[in-house]
Amino acid sequence: MDQLKEKNINFKLYLFTILIIVLSLVFKFTKYNNSPNPNLEHKELGQIESIIKYGDNSIIAVHYPILGNEQIDNKIKSIIQGYVDGFIQLTKKISPIDKKYKSELNIDYEIYSHSKDIISIKFTILEDTSHYTYPSIKTHTVIYDLSKEKELYFLPDYLEIPHIKVNYNTIKKFVKSNYINKDFIETFLPINDEHPELKIISNRKIDPNMPMVALTFDDGPYIRATIPILDTLKEHNSVATFFVLGNRVPRHKEIVKRIVHEGNEIGNHSYNHKQLTTLSSKELKEQIDKTQETIIEVVGSAPKIMGPTYGSYNNRLKSQVKMPMILWSIDTEDWKYRDAEKISKHILENVKDGDIILMHDMYISTAEAVEIIVPALINRGFQLVTVSELYEIKGEALEVGNIYNRVKSR
Ligand code: ZN
């Protein structure tokens, strides 16, 4: 009996030893078989929607995805609404003394594909109010199964925890096979996008002695507004300047190419619309450089002008941003009125030679206003040019470190 027991233990030990050997071989194999980490960030999935508000005491720029799946989209909207409502409640509590300080909410996101249907969305939430000594930055991650329209897991409210990249080879043994689709993972490796030099159509003749203005559009591009605006400009052989957000570029490559191809100008309006004056030098550099890089990737050339978010700038911005900074002389407040008649009336009543007119290619009402004002301005003898053209033709240099809002009439 005892002998049998001993034999049994020996056998178990033997099995255990075999198991250890096998495991160490597997470990060794995976260690040497480490292919480079696939970059799973999926910059082109879905549409990107933004809310940008310019209050007297608070500013909000929130970006979130629309995936075309009603249930999940509603869930995402409710998460975002929760943060916006929370922020508004928080700013209501701020005492009048603190109101000189503009509170800021900024939400941006990254989407990662893990298989054909499994995605995770990591929101980064920045709240900067006088309640906090430092801006509060947290992340909120949700994981969805698109095929089942359901949330698999969520990781709310972690302070400053970055996303974790796990090598596919390391985890594949533990993941159900239907959640693994290696072909798909490889499909979404960064694409080496060739950008043949874009041909710039220039069949416009500008008379330097006739009045001219520059229409500018911030915070885009958006399919619903940028495309009809480009259509109107093209129809009237006119151009404008688009101060784009870097985080919108990868999802709107075709629009960005079209902007340049049709002779319009692209300006840098930061990566995700943070208030740049409160950022560290490192973060400011990142906001500018990342935007330049995404634009170069699509059109092969970098913007030469920059539009500071919320129109706010300071000396550090002037010294660190290696581009001339462009403001405006006519503010349509299109984001507030959302009324084509009101926007066009405001422009037509105030416009002068050399003006820079601020609008946002986020709203259908703005696109409708453009349909009215472009022919109306041309009828009045104005030529519509880009910001750089305006300064070049008027003979005023745009210099790095300076702020510009119009060309003064001679
Ligand atoms: Zn803006």
Describe it.
The protein is an alpha/beta fold. The protein contains 12 helices and 14 strands. It has helices spanning 2-32, 70-92, 168-171, 182-187, 223-235, 253-261, 281-299, 315-320, 334-337, 340-350, 364-379, 387-394; strands spanning 47-54, 58-66, 103-113, 118-128, 136-145, 150-159, 212-218, 241-244, 265-268, 325-326, 330-331, 356-360, 383-384, 403-404. The strands form 3 sheets. A 6-stranded mixed beta sheet has the order 1-2-3-4-5-6, with helices on one face. Strands 7, 8, 9, 11, 12 and 13 form a 6-stranded parallel beta sheet that branches. Helix 6 links the parallel strand 8 (241-244) and strand 9 (265-268). Helix 10 runs parallel beside helix 11. The radius of gyration is 27 Å and the shape is elongated. The model is unreliable at 29-39, 156-163 and 181-201 (pLDDT under 50).
Key traits:
410 residues, alpha/beta, binds zinc ion, single chain, six-stranded mixed β-sheet, 12 helices, 37% helix
What are the SSEs and their pairings?
Blueprint: H1 2-32, E1 47-54, E2 58-66, H2 70-92, E3 103-113, E4 118-128, E5 136-145, E6 150-159, H3 168-171, H4 182-187, E7 212-218, H5 223-235, E8 241-244, H6 253-261, E9 265-268, H7 281-299, H8 315-320, E10 325-326, E11 330-331, H9 334-337, H10 340-350, E12 356-360, H11 364-379, E13 383-384, H12 387-394, E14 403-404
Parallel strand pairs: 2-3, 7-8, 7-12, 7-13, 8-9, 10-14, 11-12
Antiparallel strand pairs: 1-2, 3-4, 4-5, 5-6
Helix pairs in contact: 5-11, 10-11
This protein binds zinc ion.
